[in-house]
Amino acid sequence: MILISFVRKRISFCQNLTLLHPKLLAFELAKLDGVGGYSGWRWIFIVEGLMSISLSLVTKFLIVDWPSEATFLTEEERLTVAVRLKEDVGSAKMDRLDRQSLQIIIKDWKIYTGALIYLTINTCGYSTALFNPTILKQFGYNASQSQVHSIPIWGTSAAVIMLVGYLSDRIRHRWGFVIFGCFFSSIGYILLLNQHHSSLRVKYMALFIVNIGVFIAHPVTIVWLSNNLAGHYKRAFGSAFQISFGNIGGIVASNLFLPNGAPLFRAGYGSALALTVVCALLSTVFMLALDRENKMRDAGRRDYRFNLCQAELENLGDDHPDFRFTK
């Protein structure tokens, strides 16, 4: 429900706020090393875990499913939110889950392609947390100091991504930004693959390039799929599947950057570079397929669906002939 009622334009902004705060918090929590007989890293998991659990209990009562149920808003504010949501998701509907709609959801290639695209870039996103500290330690920083000195990297990434999010929405285009992010991060991976010939400054610059590139593409892939899924149930299933499947990237990343590969991580950087290429290729296929479908609808080759009964026609979601996909 939250994914459905959340305006997608804010995804990049809110996601990037999460890049900064954990680093400062982790730095302070690491100072609790030895308190209560626990290591500093254990305190990070304990405190942040308890915060997540506590907030989830509170938000259960604060977050509502629909604007009409938000008692803390005035009637005018509820109407404004409803209009914004309609502008965000369009008029295509799938608000009834029946056999027909379930088949449409399960057979939709976009959901599985979008999830695979997200898996590739999300693996690269998870991996940055694994190799960033290794390079920062080469400056002589300890683990806690590495957390603090990674903040400029995340801060720069967040600023760039918010700009990209604004531009992407302004011109209503996604593919080009995913490709740019993949291309930009690949430059950083190439530099890191050749780091034995590089100075510490070049390595540090490479961290900025990789992180900026990866986190440009990362939120756009989420929004892009959501843009192209219309209807209550289809967006709910598609978004949930994409995020769930994509989070396998955390497991993949942890097996690419193993301790015995430090500090060069040749296999890890090589694999991450390959994943950015795969992400770019899949995104291109995705864009071309969406463009082809739009042209077919413009030519009237999906107008036969207008012959369906009214109940079925109004529950087609993005299969409705009037719906146009975002490239």
Notes on the protein architecture:
The protein has 327 residues and is mainly α. It has one domain (12-20, 92-319): Growth Hormone, Chain: A (Up-down Bundle). The chain contains 14 helices and no strands. It has helices at residues 2-5, 11-29, 40-62, 75-89, 99-106, 109-137, 143-149, 151-171, 175-193, 200-227, 232-246, 249-256, 266-298, 310-313. Helix 6 runs parallel beside helix 11. Residues 1-7 have low confidence and may be disordered.
Topology as a string of helices (H) and strands (E): HHHHHHHHHHHHHH
CATH architecture: Up-down Bundle
Largest β sheet strand count, sense and barrel closure: none
Q: Would you report the number of β strands?
A: 0
Helix content: over 70%
* Distance between the first and last residues' Cα: 25 Å
Number of domains: 1
Low-confidence stretches: 1-7
Task: Estimate what percentage of residues fall within beta strands.
Answer: under 5%
Under CATH at level 1, the class stands as Mainly Alpha
* Radius of gyration based on Cα positions: 22 Å
Q: Report the CATH superfamily.
A: MFS general substrate transporter like domains
Class computed from helices, strands and strand pairing: mainly alpha
**Count of helices?**
14
Mean pLDDT: 86
Topology:
Elements: H1 2-5, H2 11-29, H3 40-62, H4 75-89, H5 99-106, H6 109-137, H7 143-149, H8 151-171, H9 175-193, H10 200-227, H11 232-246, H12 249-256, H13 266-298, H14 310-313
Helix pairs in contact: 2-7, 2-8, 2-10, 6-7, 6-10, 6-11, 6-12, 6-13, 8-10, 9-10, 9-13
